[in-house]
Amino acid sequence: MNRRTFLKIFGASTALAAMPGCSTTEAKAAKKPKGPMTLRTNPTTGDKVSILGYGCMRLPKIDGSDEYDQDEVNRQVDYAMKSGVNYYDTSPRYCEGKSEAIMGKALSRHPRDSYFIATKLSNFDPSTWSYEESVKMFEDSLKNLQTDYIDYLLLHSVGGDKQDMGLDSMGLFNTRFIDNGVLDFLKKERDGGRIRNLGFSYHGDVKIFDHLLKMHDDGEVHWDFVQIQLNYLDWNNAKKSNDRNTDAEYLYNELAKRNIPSVIMEPLLGGRLAKVDNHVLGQMKQRRPDDTPAAWAFRFAATPPQVLCVLSGMTKMENIEENVATYSSLEPLTDDENVFLEKIAQHILDYPSIPCTECKYCMPCPFGVDIPTIFAHYNKALLDGNVVESPDSPNYEKAKRTFLVGYDRKVEPRRQADHCIGCGGCLSDCAQHIQIPTELHKIDAYVDHLKRN
Ligand code: SF4
Ligand code: SF4
Questions:
Q1: How close is the Cα of 390 to the center of ligand 2, in Å?
Q2: What does the pLDDT look like over 235-272, one tens digit per residue?
Q3: Are 299 and 411 part of one and the same domain?
Q4: pTM score, two decimals?
Q5: Which of 90, 93, 56, 92 is nearest to 76 (CA)?
Q6: Fewer CB atoms inside 10 Å of the end CB: C or N, the chain?
Q7: Same domain, yes or no, for 302 and 359?
Q8: Other CB atoms within 10 A of residue 374 CB
């Protein structure tokens, strides 16, 4: 790769690395709760829902093992319950299919009316598209969660496509939920009480979002809530921040004018807004010395009044403690702070990382590529200032060593980016619409550059 190609590919990244003192800067929580957990009211059922929702997609594992740590999950759930967190969001797909059962064990130790369970009809895979398989998935959710009703049931990840099967987003939605009678089944279950609220999580093509709201307007289905991605980067920069075609501001406002509450996912954009460079951190600390970048992002996500709940995929107790403190009680953003965060968003967009949330929907790759771990390593290196352009840079050797040693340590050689053959099989699975093979090839080119220079 010549210097020109290198600059074209890595220009923005290296600009970040060149910033003085640029580093990963997640600060330790310093705050304590100042009041009770903020609650929001569901206009349909009157549920008083905690503004902090417990996302169950990254449950803790036993140190040094691939086993999930049920005792630690129990401990975290007990702390969350005691702190007023009453919304728990899982899916048959989370944690390699184990999340619901783990959460069922943890939650069933508490009175059933003290918490709300959200789970999803996650029938992404063609083998689960039939009526029978989808209904089985719903019944299995009840069993795994040790309950006879679901408080919040979502059609999972509406808006993607399946180009390899000739299905655009509308075709895929109809196949998964309409033609097979699954939506009718779910509506009947809501009428019968085994589902208390019916909604969908939106990931993608806005024409599906508009279509589902038209169904609502036409009385074909009443959506009790909708889960959307909202954070200060996506509020009105979605196209630039993650190649989505819809700003969160549009999504939220369309729901709000219909009085449909929003449940928020990705308030930190896969952790990207918790790890800001020193320039951003300094500005944030100047305004609110005790707040971490994550606290800013969580306050932003919860400020719109028709947000019912903000989900956080919490793995460590300290994450839960910090989020509880931020929302006990919520201090909504002021107008001035909103303007401040818009400026911060512009700065972050000037120095792009890969917007991978490590959701693992793209896995497994048939060629063994460990996509999320590769992207996570690259993003961390970027934030730590270890993606460096020129061998003439003073920290080139150190950055090169850190990048390459870390790469081999975190990603087995047979699972690294050079094993991507560019088949594109993962593209339609990525909820963030990342051009996965293109990004992998860029990273591989960068690794190659480091090895040659
Ligand atoms: S494009 Fe690359 S990463 Fe994606 S499925 Fe194909 S080989 Fe795997
Ligand atoms: S590349 Fe996309 S689908 Fe894969 S883990 Fe990242 S965000 Fe999820």
A1: 29
A2: 988 766 555 568 999 999 999 999 999 999 999 988 88
A3: no
A4: 0.76
A5: 56
A6: C
A7: no
A8: 25
- Give residue 33's identity as a one-letter amino acid code: P
Which residue lies with its CA nearest to atom 3 of ligand 1?
Answer: 420
232 lies in the same domain as 318: yes
Instruction: Classify residue 64 as exposed, middle or buried by CB count within 10 Å of its CB (0-12, 13-18, 19+).
Output: exposed
CA dihedral 381, 383, 385, 391 (to 10 degrees): 50
Q: Which domain range does residue 372 map to?
A: 3-19+353-452
The alpha carbon of 417 and the centre of ligand 1 are apart by a number of angstroms equal to 9
Maximum CA extent, the chain:
69
Domain end call among 325, 350, 375? 350
Percent of the chain, pLDDT > 90?
75
- Ligand nearest, relative to CA of residue 157: 2
User: How many independent structural domains does the chain possess?
Assistant: 2
Pocket of ligand 2, candidates 436, 438, 440, 442: which has the most ligand atoms within 8 Å of its Cβ, to mutate? 436
Would you say the CB of residue 372 lies under 6 angstroms from ligand 1? no
My answer on whether 129 and 221 are in the same domain is: yes
Residues with CB under 6 A from ligand 2: 356-362, 371-372, 375, 429-432, 434, 436
Same domain flag for 276 and 375? no
Cα(288) to ligand 1 centroid in Å equals 43
Cβ of 426 closer than 6 Å to ligand 1, yes or no, is yes
When the pLDDT of each residue in the chain is averaged and rounded to a whole number, the result is: 90
The dihedral region occupied by 279, where left means phi > 0, alpha psi between -120 and 50, and beta the remainder, is: alpha
Distance between Cα 425 and ligand 1 center (Å): 6
Residue 439 C-alpha to ligand 1 middle, in angstroms?
11
pLDDT digits (tens, 9 = 90+) for 128-143: 999 999 999 999 999 9
